[in-house]
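To whoever is on call:

I kicked off a structure prediction for a single chain this morning and the downstream step that reads the tokens threw a length-mismatch warning. I double-checked the sequence; it's 341 residues and nothing unusual in it as far as I can see. Pasting both halves so you can look.
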Amino acid sequence: MKHAIRHTKHDATPRVVFTPGEPAGIGPDLAVRLAQSAHPCEIVAVADPDLLAERAAALGLSLTLDVADFGSDPVPQRPGRLTVWPVERAAPTRCGEPDPRNARYVLDTLDAAVALCRRGDCGALVTGPVHKAVINDAGIAFDGHTGYLAARCGSGEPVMMLATRGEPELRVALATVHIPLSAVPGAITADGLTHTLRVLDDDLRHRFGIARPRILVAGLNPHAGEGGYLGREEIDVIAPVIEALRDEGLELTGPLPADTLFTPARLRGADAVLAMYHDQGLPVIKHLGFGRTVNVTLGLPIVRTSVDHGTALDIAGTDAVDTGSAEAALAMALDLVAHDR
């Protein structure tokens, strides 16, 4: 997989596009609250300006909205101001009450954000949380940001990775994502696992600046199959893929029992872990760093990071919203843009 270096049209100060996601959730709160502090980039919120103004008023926060002008030089984020690329909602918004009529609006903001990144107006995309069920209730097939963005970018199968920023540092990528647990064994294929490990290795090199990534690969079964007595996926699929990719130069260790893989001694010196399924790896990293964990989509032609939490409908429009993960997602996006340069 080849990586092209992408520059925004103005490199001195990067522009980062932010999509708030579900308008009835905390995404608009995150945009408004991020705008209250200075940042070393220009944040461009792709959203309905009226929605942002309404949410700022509900939170009692001062906010001046500026329409994006990509013909001028970016300006570092100034407290109390926010640049907006306007996209209009289909229906009014009440905090905590998603409306399927706005499902298309949510996807329109993603489409616009991808276009801004692909043509070089913005250097990275940070996404707020979406409500998958509401989008599907609107009659639109949608299984999450990752696949949707890959389709809009014309990319192959992307890879989902969560990473903590700061100490302790941990990166966990997934071989399978949002599928039932009963479907996981059949989804662990030689071709799929090979693709995932190649993408993970390539992005760790070119996006994270790691010259020779060291990747730990989890087994699927308890005790990594116990020599075949607890399952043969390790013998028939996972181990042969690891051996073949080692011959290509990838530094891989595994398959390892997941119950001891995440111990400090085993993680020492490792750059990333590949878990076989969602709840094998993500509970560990979220326990370690929830609120500062970032979702990074690997294998895209653009930089994309996201918060590690959902729409939190019950606290939208209140003082209970924590911007920690959004701040971490923005900071990591800037790190990845810097490596791309």
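Update from on-call: the warning came from a stale cache, not from the record. Cleared it. Sanity check on the structure: The CA atoms of residues 136 and 142 lie 6 Å apart.
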